[in-house]
Write a structure and sequence with these properties.
The chain is of the alpha/beta class and about 375 residues long. The protein is about 35% helix and about 20% strand.
């Protein structure tokens, strides 16, 4: 999810790394004859993505076995950076499929015309609320909710009910407890700002942030610092002696805390304030000018197959978008269902994102 979702590791998240090219199986990435009329078609299909893409090797091997294509994954930084590179190489893409553009960046990608329309096989199995592009230039692959997380032990010790809504966060009992990410530099920070826009509208969201600032909200550059250093409820935050029991993170963060807990706890030490959420949806698209268009189509089909959709939750800590994909027990036992996340249309985001971020920065940071 532009998610620039951090995949859990020892610190419960993998920090963004350098650009890498990793191969799953064999194949020749330097097939210069692909696409010519008198040469064999390339048997390599390249997926360009942000750094958080991950899949079980056996699942990718299954695609390779079924399709005859070898998958290569080209990771290109966070979602914004990866998208920028594809815009700069429009028409001569670095791969065949791009994965990782989310609804906060979708209109930018579509306006720049980097995708070839393709209606994926299996699209009828995708929940219709996630199909945001009726021209099928992109296909929904996963969803995730940006939400305030809370430290259960802190609120139990203080005998204070944890906040559940955006309105709650400006109440006196939560003064100096919340840490958020910078909306100008962080995907979850931007998502949380958009939650306030969705809730309070153009006329009210800035007044809401004025109240949050008066109530002692702390702003840091990114998720890693907020969650693994300042938040008292995470494993990393405990080690760093973080003193903020409220943080903007993801609805999937509590299951991650259980999965990587040492020892593994019976119950998640963190909870989710379900009335504070903004839903991210991530998409994949066939890149215009792809050298292996047929392989790209097969890969897009596979990304919404039941096999891949059920593999995703424990690999990228996101939710499937297809109707029949089952969640793992870790999610059903320790996760939460966000029934009514805040929403802002991709068109409104594209039109206003820059001015909203500038206004937010002037109001909250400066």
């Amino acid at each position: 999810m532009s998610t620039t979702k951090k995949i859990a590791g020892a610190a419960l998240a993998a920090a963004l790394g350098v650009t890498t090219l990793s191969a799953c199986g064999g194949g020749d990435a330097k097939d210069k004859t692909a696409g010519t009329s008198d040469a064999p078609k390339s048997k390599t299909v390249t997926l360009v993505s942000h750094d958080s893409f991950n899949a079980t090797e056996a699942v990718l091997k299954e695609f390779e076995r079924q399709s005859g294509y070898t998958v290569k994954v080209l990771k290109s930084g966070d979602a914004g950076a990866a998208l920028n590179q594809e815009i700069l190489t429009k028409g001569s893409p670095r791969g065949d499929v791009f994965f990782g553009v989310d609804n906060t960046l979708l209109s930018r990608a579509l306006d720049n015309g980097i995708f070839t329309p393709y209606e994926a096989k299996g699209l009828a199995d995708v929940k219709p609320e996630y199909v945001l592009d009726k021209e099928h230039r992109v296909t929904p692959v996963d969803s995730g909710d940006i939400c305030v997380n809370y430290d259960k032990a802190y609120f139990a010790d203080k005998k204070i009910a944890p906040p559940q809504t955006l309105d709650d966060l400006v109440k006196p009992e939560y003064k100096n407890l919340l840490v958020v990410e910078n909306a100008a530099t962080s995907s979850p920070g931007l998502g949380f700002m958009l939650a306030s826009v969705g809730k309070y509208g153009e006329e009210g969201w800035k007044d809401y942030w004025s109240k949050l600032k008066a109530n002692g909200v702390e702003v840091v550059d990114g998720w890693e610092q907020a969650y693994n250093e300042r938040f008292s409820g995470s494993a990393g935050g405990k080690k760093a002696k973080g003193d903020r029991p409220l943080v903007v993170s993801y609805a999937s963060s509590p299951p991650v805390e259980v999965l990587y807990g040492e020892p593994q706890p019976a119950e998640a030490p963190t909870g989710v304030s379900t009335g504070t959420c903004f839903r991210q949806v991530e998409f994949a698209g066939l890149l215009k000018g792809a050298k292996n268009e047929e392989g790209g189509k097969a890969l897009v089909d596979f990304l919404i197959s039941k096999k891949f959709q059920e593999d995703m939750p424990l690999q990228m800590f996101v939710n499937p978008v297809t109707k029949d994909a089952a969640l793992p027990e870790l999610f059903t036992k320790h996760g939460v269902v966000v029934d009514k996340p805040e929403n802002v249309t991709p068109e409104a985001i594209a039109k206003n994102r820059e001015q909203w971020v500038k206004a937010w920065t002037a109001l909250v940071v400066k």
